[in-house]
Amino acid sequence: MPTRAERKIDERLIRELRNKGVLLDAEGHKLDSPKGAILVTCADCDQFEDIFNHTLEMLRKGGYEERPQPLSQHGGGMLISETCPLDRKYKIDEYLLLNIARARHMKAINTLALLVHYPCGAARLAGIPLFDVIEHNVAAKRRVKSLWPELKVGCFVHVDYLDRKRTYFLSHDAFTEWALEYGEEFRTQAHAPDNSCEPEGLIIFPSFSTVPP
């Protein structure tokens, strides 16, 4: 979890993005998903229920089929960004892209929701500040659209304020414009990686090309 000082910095960024029209109230029309939505989100067990239920609520309010198809990995939508450092050595971005393609084929869903959340333990372990988490999520949308231009893609940010939880729509265009003018002020406010939760002696398979006996 972030320290009190870190949370103060991060919530200042959230307020700034809200005030500048970058983070907007997440409503049903922000998904544009008549057949449901593929949801790429973090696997955080303390946040997943709220994220999933709010996705259902957005689909319901939009008058769409209530068919969220979750793809959950620690870090969420930002993992698809080509510059996101989290779990890059495991090709997690390619894994998620493969499963987006599978979900589209199997479920005939043509809408994708890329969601990140704050505070994110996986981002903290990797030393990724909130600004970069959001920036990676925007970059993930650009990458997906370059592969499937016809796919409808929305970016979202879930925030746990401790006393309440909110899911915001993240405007790609508004963030890009805001970051060019104000981004450097927030980009430098990073924290050091938190390695205290890294397991010692963790055994992992050196390659996904072989199957263990």
Description of the molecule:
By secondary structure, the chain is α/β, with parallel strands linked by helices. It has a single domain (27-187), classed as Beta-carbonic Anhydrase, Chain A (3-Layer(aba) Sandwich). The protein is built from six helices and six strands; from the N terminus they run αββαβαβααββα. The chain has a six-stranded mixed sheet with strand order 1-6-5-4-2-3, sandwiched between helices. α5 runs antiparallel to α6 (172-187). The longest helix has 18 residues, at 130-147.
Strand content: 15-25%
| Shape, per Cα inertia axes | globular
What is the name of the CATH topology? Beta-carbonic Anhydrase, Chain A
- Number of E-state strands: 6
Low-confidence stretches: 205-213
- Arithmetic mean pLDDT: 89
Radius of gyration: 17 Å
Helix content: 25-40%
Oligomer designation = single chain
How are the SSEs placed, and which strands pair?
Blueprint: H1 4-19, E1 23-25, E2 37-41, H2 48-61, E3 68-72, H3 92-107, E4 111-118, H4 121-125, H5 130-147, E5 152-160, E6 165-170, H6 172-187
In short:
The protein is of the alpha/beta class. It is 40% helix and 17% strand. The chain has 6 helices and 6 strands, in the order αββαβαβααββα.
Features:
Beta-carbonic Anhydrase, Chain A, single chain, 17% strand, alpha/beta, six-stranded mixed sheet, 6 strands, disordered C terminus
